[in-house]
Amino acid sequence: xPTISIATPDLADGGSTIVEADGQRLFLCxxxxxxxxxxxxxxxxxxxxxxxxxxxGSLFCPHHGARFDMDTGKSLSTLTSKPVVWLxxxxxxxxxxxxx
Length: 100
Description:
Elements: E1 3-7, E2 16-21, E3 24-31, E4 34-39, E5 53-55, E6 58-60, E7 67-69, E8 89-92, E9 95-99
Antiparallel strand pairs: 1-9, 2-3, 3-4, 5-6, 6-7, 8-9
């Protein structure tokens, strides 16, 4: 499994960003103090998660409001049954290692 390393983003709790590394565009967010990474694309209609909201343990797609559980990635919406797939990651000081 390939691993990429990027600088740890400065994300407040509930914050998110899109990063690009090694040709991969990834969605990073922090919820409950936990940093998470996933593909940039929402599984609902393959639109970017840029601007997604994180509230009360859920991730909300900015395009159609599809909702996903922050812990499991499971869809909590009738819009799709496909989950957000959280990628394994490790924070090491000022670097994050993400398994693709």
